[in-house]
Design brief:
The chain has a two-stranded antiparallel ribbon. The chain is mainly alpha-helical. The longest helix is centred in the C-terminal third of the chain and has 42 residues.
Length: 248
């Protein structure tokens, strides 16, 4: 009676993440961490001994300038999501009408002891990526709104100054956190919108931090248990796949 050894699955390298996608990822990591650091100092500035108005404005200005870099990087990525390579496009990265079936199949294969391999994001990862991207856009929009209403920075600063300026007052003369020349009624009318934008901004950052922690955990777990090489792929752009990828 003859026996045959099982054939080992072929291991192959695939180019997946193009250079713009990798650059966005790591630049975004650096900028988000910088924004969180400065934002944290702003929140606890009194405890840190920063009590003067100039210090408060200086921190907000630094936060806004880092925010501009964050916004530019994000906008470029949003554009790249439509014109980049197959795996950089949102049509491949985000959930679609078939994602529910893909997710159920993915879970059933894992439960059966199989190890499905993906070039792009697996079905669970697609939902996580969509959530992170929506939060990044929310943080950008609310951050730009607060930049305009807090310290009169572009793109909304000039419009806010023109709205707040009292009669016969040059809008450009208005200064951050200074009521001189400001129409009190208009300032009071603007407060609810300003406050809402601030709350959404802060809680979106908290939720983003949670998703980032879950993302890091999932990536490390997948790297160790299911698909080695997904971390290095965000540096090299290449994924090492054992067997036939599910999304080639």
């Amino acid at each position: 009676m003859s026996s045959s050894k099982p054939t080992a699955l072929e291991v192959k390298s695939y180019p997946v993440w193009d250079k713009p996608t990798r650059l966005f990822h790591w630049i975004n990591v650096i900028l988000v961490l910088a924004l969180i650091l400065v934002g944290g100092i702003m929140m606890y500035r009194t405890e840190l001994g920063i009590t003067e108005l100039t210090g408060k404005i200086g921190l907000k200005t630094l936060h806004v300038w880092i925010g501009y870099a964050f916004a530019i990087n994000l906008i470029i990525r949003l554009v790249w999501g439509f014109v980049g390579n197959k795996y950089a496009r949102f049509s491949h990265m985000f959930p679609n009408t078939n994602s529910k079936n893909e997710l159920m199949t993915y879970k059933s294969e894992l439960a059966a002891g199989k190890n499905p391999q993906y070039l792009g994001h697996n079905p669970k990862g697609k939902f996580a990526v969509l959530g992170i991207m929506l939060l990044l856009v929310t943080i950008m929009v609310t951050g730009l709104l607060r930049a305009g209403t807090d310290i009169y920075y572009p793109p909304l600063g000039s419009a806010v100054q023109s709205y707040l300026a009292d009669t016969n007052v040059d809008p450009a003369s208005l200064k951050p956190y200074d009521a001189t020349g400001v129409n009190t009624e208009k300032a009071d009318a603007l407060k609810p919108l300003k406050g809402l934008a601030g709350e959404v901004h802060v809680y979106a950052v908290y939720l983003l931090l949670l998703l980032i922690l879950l993302h890091v955990f999932a990536v490390v777990y997948t790297e160790v248990k299911r698909q080695p090489g997904i971390i290095s792929a965000m540096f090299s752009g290449k994924k090492i796949i054992q067997g036939q990828p599910k999304d080639e």
